[in-house]
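Sequence, structure tokens passed on for absentees:
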Amino acid sequence: MISAISLAVRHVIALYIFLCFLLLVYKAGKFKVAKFQYSRIVEYLQFSDTLEGDCGIERDRLLLAAHLNSALCHLKLGNDVAARESANRALELDGKNEKALFRRGMVCSVLRINVVMFRG
């Protein structure tokens, strides 16, 4: 039991370190690479819902951060629909998260501009 808990803690710490690394990748302008890696983190964390206690809370925080950062990468790449989906998933985790609301608002404004230009 103790080894299982310490293994879960190690996974959470490793994911935090990986998120910090991906922030550097994003800042370097490598949006496709960052987007792909954020999606891998989301896939991994979605199926690790057996974490309990503090590890479960940290899992939710990591998942929220991955969705938010994924939405930003999608926006930078012009994938507006995928950005909206990522922002909506973040809002499912925390409906009052300001970053998620802001990202979804950014996507909606971009989509609205595209619709007006298309009709125009």
Observations:
- The radius of gyration is 16 Å.
- DSSP finds five helices and no strands in the chain.
